[in-house]
Amino acid sequence: MKPLQHILLALFLVLIGQAVIAQASVTIGKPVGTEEVKFGETLTIKWKNGDLGANDYFQFLYSTNGGTSFNQIAYQYYNNLIQDGDSSSYVWTVPDFGSSIDQNVKILVRNTTQSAADTSVAFRIYFEPEVSVGNPKVTDEYKFGDPITIKWKNGDLGNNDYFQFLYSTNGGSSYTHITYQYYSNLLQDGDSSAYSWTVPDFGSLIDQNVDILVRNTTRNKADTSETFRIYFEPEVSVGNPKVTDEYKFGDPITIKWKNGDLGNNDYFQFLYSTNGGSSYTHITYQYYSNLVHDGDSSTYTWTVPDFGSLIDQNVDIIVRNTTRSKADTSETFRIYFEPEVSVGNPKVTDEYK
Predict the structure, then answer these.
(1) DSSP state letters, 153-217
(2) I want to staple 89 with a disulfide (CB 3.0 to 4.6 A). Which of 82, 153, 159, 282 is the partner?
(3) How far apart are CA 180 and CA 169, in angstroms?
């Protein structure tokens, strides 16, 4: 072969090689655009390679804004890819997009070694959040201080979903926060979640129809429970003084009574009567912090007053829970005063001029 032929052959082979190198490409075959993939499901991304080197690395990215920007699915991969002739595939578990519950998504596959890439057509990824409160029920009755386990079912529940819990005592016209956002303190059981609430003291309201609202604040989904009853059983039962008691002017009297349900901020009045209950006089007005509590019993110490010209009195005491409008009257007991005049001077032996 002549030297010129050798040169031409070499040039031909170089051009052939360049043409082969120029065939490096990525062409995505899946997704095709008709797919609808749910949060947590897997999607197999498939593409054809023009020229695939033994050590080519790939990146996988997705876009939720039509390709204006992309987020990494995974960085460089080779060993984890599935090869089938000139086709490759990668399995992607669809992520939680946070507050976005329905997205049109594009996927970009890039051969970073060969600087070749392709973007898929848009397809749908969706999330189905739901809140369905199952407890409490309309037949439930809870007493002040009882724990209530609020239970609800979720549709799709994201790893970082936050919840609010609220209650209403006016049929849902307005709500009061039980607590604000919670995630880590929730109890999960499959698709169900639970939160424990200790029934509060509603103040002067002693019987309430209550609704509870559970809100997934991340997904903006909520549900309201059936209406149930919360009740409070206030009571005042005076045990002391008793009918057999006798107290003298200036003596201390320990007034004792039992409470049914006692609220943290209940106030009391103490009154006495010296006419069989026809009228009463205040011992003192509202008290809370000065009371002594022992379990369901409370006490208040009263120093017997001077009733003036009255030296012997039958007395009744009223203890009134002014917060709950509950009261009781003691047994009638005696308060006495022992006036005396004893002249010591002058004496029988005294003589005065």
Answers:
(1) EESS--TT--EEEEEESSTTSS-EEEEEEESTT-EEETTEEEEEEEPPP-TT--EEEEEEEEEET
(2) 82
(3) 18
pLDDT in tens, the chain (353 residues): 556 555 555 555 444 454 444 467 899 999 999 999 998 899 999 999 988 877 888 999 999 999 999 999 987 787 778 888 888 999 999 988 877 788 999 999 999 988 899 999 999 999 989 999 999 999 999 998 899 999 999 998 887 889 999 999 999 999 999 988 887 778 888 889 999 999 988 877 788 999 999 999 988 999 999 999 999 888 999 999 999 999 999 999 999 999 988 887 889 999 999 999 999 999 988 787 778 888 889 999 999 988 876 778 899 999 999 988 899 999 999 999 877 788 889 988 988 88
Grouping H, G, I as helix, E, B as strand and the rest as coil, residue 105 is strand
What is the tally of helices (H) and strands (E) in the chain?
Answer: 1, 30
Using DSSP's 3-state secondary structure scheme, residue 21 falls into helix
Residue 57: how many other CB atoms lie within 10 Å:
16
How far apart (Å, rounded) are the C-alpha atoms in residues 164 and 208? Answer: 21
Q: In what order do the strands lie in the sheet with 131-135?
A: 131-135, 147-154, 192-198, 187-189
254 contacts 240 by C-beta, under 8 angstroms: yes
Count CA atoms closer than 13 A to 98's CA, side-chain side: 1
- Pair type for strands 163-168 and 187-189: unpaired
Q: What is the DSSP letter of 317?
A: E
Identify the burial level of 131 via C-beta atoms within 10 angstroms of its C-beta, where 0-12 means exposed, 13-18 middle and 19 or more buried: buried
Question: Could you identify the residue written with the tokens 């991304």?
Answer: 45
Structure-block tokens of residue 118: 């392709």
